[in-house]
Amino acid sequence: MTKKRVSACFPLILLGGCSAIQYDEGIADRLLTQGQHREAYTHYQYLAQFGLPKTQRKLAQLYLQQGNDYQALLWLEKAGASGDLPAQLKRARLLAFSQDPNVSDVTQGRALILQLIDQGYDAAIKDLIKLLALGQGNFIPPKYLIIAQQKAQQGHQASCYLFGEMYINGQAPQLSGAQAKDYHLCAAQHFEKAFYGLSVLYNQQPNLGDFEQVYQLLKASKHPRKQNVGFKIAKKIANGSLAHWNGQHAETLLLWLAETDPRAYYHLAVLYVKQPTIGKDLTDIMDVLSQGKAAGDLDCYAFEAEMYLFGIRAIQDPWRAEKLLLEAPESSSYINFLLGALYSEGYLGEPHYPKALAYLDKSAVSGFKRADRQLSKIYSGGSGIKFDLIAAAKYQLLAQANEDQLSRFKQKFNISEQQMAQATAQAEHEQNKRLSSPLNNKDQLI
Q: Cβ atoms within 10 A of the Cβ of 277, count?
């Protein structure tokens, strides 16, 4: 591990004073794993000035987590200038795929990715997938795909993943389904996303494999992030994206995930509510939620409360919903949204807007889009709170309303272009403020 330990003495030394602060990368790493990002940042920021590429990369990663692509790019450029290939690749990815217009440069990012492949840095091959997805295929000389296919045939996992994904996206007609299956199986040893690729392939061509095969492979895998892809597959099954598999397959995955991950209880409960054909009644659903609450999953408190608040498969009981939300061991963006909805809609009597806005603001700041939609509804309602169309439009934008939704909203309230421009500027300012807050977005139920 790259280490640098220094005591920082400031100009106060002239007066006989010296800071005893010690900066150490190992300490910073521990702080980061403990979730103390600000404290870790202090160490990384100081040490990065000494030209340590690994530390500069870690500092860049912190900026990325905060949504500050520009500062991340600057530190990656410094790390890459020292010959650090991982930093050069991260910088190339940021240029090619960033959503920040002040950072994005697809042409330069693509050129750097191809340059790294030329240098024999095989990790860059994986990024050809994203370039193809961006419609950059015409700008990638054929030799790079030939190199990647040769490596795939030799068992190079990133190359296998590339061609497996290309096949299921209709970009590798020269392959057969059996070859694509072999490539996904090769890639699954290292890339957990390959399990989802297999799921898609088996649903496109059921003769190649079935749910049970993917499930057993996933269970046997030693990949540290296999649970994440398990949740993704369960969600895609539940919403019908994997049409040849059904709710009972999603249930099988979630029951397995629940053995090690309490989040699965929430997803199981939602699955049982949305797919009654699985055959679970209210008692079964409440039992699953009770297990999740016992395991400390806050979403289980919130979802049980939502069922009682809105009368979902249960008798509507807003007082019971409030009690559940207030008894949760700690708050969350989901819980704050429900409390805001409870008080703003007057489920307990007259609406209490000050209390509602306090909860909804907390929820919205952490990225919960349902809270933004509720805030838009409040400000456009003008009942009990000042009518504010610009604020309402701002929250519509923050909720990521699509073009049709925005068009209907503008027509309904006859919003002018000038008002919309003001709302857009306010939404951009608010979004920049939110980027430094960790997201806990449970808008999309499984």
A: 8
Q: Which residue has the tokens 């249930």?
A: 251
Q: Which amino acid is at 340?
A: G
Residue 435 is predicted with a pLDDT of 63
pLDDT at 99: 84
R_g over Cα of the chain: 25
- Tokens at 218, concatenated: 């996933």
Cβ atoms within 10 Å, residue 262: 18
- Whole-number Å distance between alpha carbons of 410 and 376: 12
Q: How far apart are CA 80 and CA 87, in angstroms?
A: 5
Rounded Cα gap, residues 109 and 100, in angstroms: 14
Map residue 7 onto helix, strand or coil.
strand
Average pLDDT across the chain, whole number: 88
* Contact (Cβ atoms closer than 8 angstroms) between residue 24 and residue 11: no
The C-alpha angle 298, 363, 386, rounded to 5 degrees, equals: 145
Contact (CB, 8 A) for 269 and 285: yes
- What does the DSSP 8-state code read for residue 122? G
- Confidence band of 15 (pLDDT split at 50, 70, 90): very low
DSSP 124: G
Classify residue 444 as exposed, middle or buried by CB count within 10 Å of its CB (0-12, 13-18, 19+).
exposed
Residue 309, pLDDT > 50, answer yes
User: Any residues with CB less than 8 A from the CB of 362 and at least 6 apart, and which?
Assistant: 331, 333, 336
Question: Would you state the structure tokens that stand for residue 184, as one six-digit string?
Answer: 């996904």
Alpha helices, DSSP H only, in 243-317?
247-257, 263-274, 282-294, 298-310
Whether the full predicted model's pTM is greater than 0.90, yes or no, is: no
Q: From start to end of 1-151, where are the E strands?
A: 6-7, 22-23
- At 192, the amino acid letter reads E
* 115's tokens: 């340059």
Determine the Cα–Cα distance for residues 97 and 76; give it in Å rounded to an integer: 15
pLDDT (tens digit per residue) in 371-424: 999 999 999 987 778 889 999 999 999 998 888 998 999 999 999 999 999 999
In this structure, which amino acid lies at residue 168?
I
